[in-house]
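Q: What residues go here?
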């Protein structure tokens, strides 16, 4: 497990708010664990984050950028990306009616 630092960036690209420190196995897991805290902070400040920068802390080399993630939430589009059109029902099987012609009787 490594120690990660998450920093929210505003729409202009500048960091804002306090960094969130998380211990996780990967940068993606660090975002999953730290994103709720960042969302609370940005909601309190009435701002919104366009990007989460994830840094890994090391004793010798200091902090290194290991990833940048886009937050979940409202974004461009109608939210229907990946939604498939439902399949059409199969046509009904042909009918198996058998009709025989009535026998022709000669007039008596």
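A:
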């Amino acid at each position: 497990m490594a120690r990660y630092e998450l920093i929210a960036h505003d729409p202009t690209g500048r960091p804002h708010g306090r960094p969130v420190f998380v211990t996780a196995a990967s940068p993606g897991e660090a975002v999953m664990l730290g994103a709720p805290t960042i969302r609370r902070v940005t909601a309190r400040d009435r701002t919104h984050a366009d990007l989460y920068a994830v840094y890994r802390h090391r004793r010798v080399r200091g902090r290194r950028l290991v990833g940048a993630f886009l937050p979940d939430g409202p974004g461009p589009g109608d939210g229907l990306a990946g939604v498939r059109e439902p399949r059409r029902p199969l046509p009904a099987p042909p009918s198996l009616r058998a009709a025989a012609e009535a026998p022709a009787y000669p007039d008596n």
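A: Context that may help when evaluating the design: Helices lie at 27-44. Residues 19-63 form one domain.
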